[in-house]
Design goal:
Length: about 240
């Protein structure tokens, strides 16, 4: 049966202590976006940026989302370099970003030592319109590899774009929660039975997807509240798995 481990604390401190090398690093870092000017990005909390004023939930805020462009690029480069050291040769890194931080994220991916392999658009089927312009209904996943990508046996063929919207209602337990269906497609970049690492684990969606796809999961989450939510979801995901034959 697939297994999981979740650490609570600072990822840059914890990554060098992990005793299992990752077959894939899949991470949704704080975008440090949401404002056209640096002062706007630094002045708003994550909840203020990503939650509409008429929202009917009180999901916890999270930190690390008030860096300016240079600070964000330096921080993400450091994190991705530490991720490379925690990954096997051939492992893939999949890093979420929005349109505003796409150039900075591609710089950070390569500065961290990963070979940039491409971009996978993620279209959110429910998105607000933009007056007199184009709807911002896409975010992006940047793909990099630790040297030459792992050759799967048998070979796999993954989609070049993703589609799905954030959970709503009781299914939403994190401000920027990703759809499990989208994450299930991404975790397949790790070999079956391999280990998926997510050092911004949030409410554990990457882990839930990894377990559902027969992968192991190692997560790191800074927020105590979200780490607790992730543990609950991961335990529930294991309970849903059929017993080993």
């Amino acid at each position: 049966m697939p297994s999981w481990t979740l650490h609570q604390g600072d990822a840059l401190t914890l990554l060098p202590t992990l005793d299992t090398l990752a077959d894939a690093v899949i991470v949704d870092p704080p975008y440090n976006s949401g404002g056209l000017q640096a002062a706007q990005r630094r002045g708003q909390s994550a909840r203020g940026k990503y939650v509409s004023g008429d929202a009917n939930h009180l999901l916890p805020d999270f930190g690390g989302d008030r860096r300016d462009q240079r600070g964000y690029t330096y921080w993400l480069s450091s994190m991705l370099a530490a991720s490379l050291a925690a990954a096997r040769p051939g492992a893939s890194a999949l890093v979420f970003t929005d349109w505003a931080q796409l150039p900075a994220t591609s710089d950070a991916l390569q500065a961290g030592g990963w070979v940039w392999r491409g971009i996978i658009p993620w279209r959110k089927t429910i998105a607000r319109p933009t007056r007199d312009g184009f709807k911002r209904e896409c975010e992006y996943v940047l793909w990099g590899s630790h040297g030459e990508p792992t050759r799967h046996a048998p070979s796999i063929y993954l989609p070049g774009w993703l589609e799905g919207s954030q959970p709503r209602g009781k299914g939403r337990v994190h401000i920027t929660q990703k759809p499990v269906a989208v994450m299930r497609q991404l975790v397949r970049i790790a070999p079956e039975g391999g280990t998926v690492l997510d050092w911004c684990a949030g409410s554990g969606t990457t882990g839930v997807a990894a377990l559902a796809e027969g992968r192991r999961f190692v997560g790191i989450e800074a927020s105590g509240e979200y780490a607790a939510a992730a543990r609950q979801r991961l335990m529930a995901a294991v309970d849903k798995e059929p017993a080993a034959a």
